[in-house]
Every structure is written in structure tokens, then in C-alpha cells.
Amino acid sequence: MEALALKSFLTMFVVIDPVGLIPIYLGLDPHQTPTENRATARRAISIGAVVLVVFTLAGAQLLEHLGISLDAFRIAGGLLLLKIAVDMVFAQRERETPEEAQENRQRTDISVFPLAVPLVAGPGAMASVMILAGESDGGLGIGVVLGCTAAVLVLAYTALRMSSRLSGVLGQTGINVVTRLLGVMLAALSVQYVADGVMGFIAPV
What we know:
By secondary structure, the protein is mainly alpha-helical.
């Protein structure tokens, strides 16, 4: 169970990347008051948490309904995470399309979009919680996955709340270094997901 907890925490920390949220958040709305900052961070993390809980608890049923095996989802999720990892390493990380960015500029509330989805609960995070839930034994294992995800979301909330201070301490260079290191870890994890999925397909029944 300790191994599942460690894997779940590291996976969700790397995928959600609380540190990487800081420059993106500051770029979305750098002129928020402390009160607005607190309210925005709270709404974004709350909505992201609901999305991830739904995918953790109902992901397997969704896959079964669509006729998709967990091994197929591992491979698809691994490839998706690998794309995110490569973007992180080469400083090309983009969590929203140009159309979404244009829509965001026309909005005043950034907590739902793009903060909650897709910055906090993006495709990579959704895929990760579904895969981790599938690898658990259910029951207590699901609780471990949810608990580790909650811990990372608390860190993400803290990062959003302290974004101005942390940005000043780390600087753009420090944020870039952390993001690249997390990208390398995510790349290795994504390859493992793909390998596990492939082995599931070719293993004898």
C-alpha cells in the first residue's frame, strides 16, 4: 500500500505540477486582489477535485461501457502523458488551444476555465487517476489514490495562493528548472504505462 501511495502522489504531483501553475496563473490575471486570489484558487481547486474524484470512482465503469480495456487506456494515457512530458522538458507546455486562450481573454472568471479544467484537472490528470484506480485493489486502494490526489491539490491550492511570492523567490529560471525535472520524471512514468499496457495485451490469458 505504501508503494501505491508513493506512486500515486508522485504521479499526480508531476502531472498537475503545482509549481508550473504559478507562471500560468500569474499570466492569466496578474492584477487580482488578495481576496479575489483566494476565491479564485478555492473555486479552481474545488472544481478540479470534483472532476478527478468522478474519474477515479467512475472511470472503470466508463471504460467498460465504451468497450475499452484498461490496458488500452494505459497505452493511450501513457502516450498522452509522454506528449505533456516532452512539452515540459522543451518548455513548450501548452494546456489550452489558441481558441480557448482567446475565449479566456473574454472572460472575467478564470477559476473554471482554464484553471480548473484543463490546468488542474487536465487530460493527463484524468488519465492518471483512472489508471491508478485500476491498479489499486479497490476499497482502501481507491482511498489511497484519492488521498494522495487530495494532498497534491492542497499543494496546488497553496501554490496558487502564494503565486506572487513563489514566483519572486524561484524566478522564471527556477520555475523552468523544476518544470523540466518534473518533465523527465513524467516521461519515464509514461513509458512505464505504455510498457504495462503492451504487456497486458501480449501476456497469455
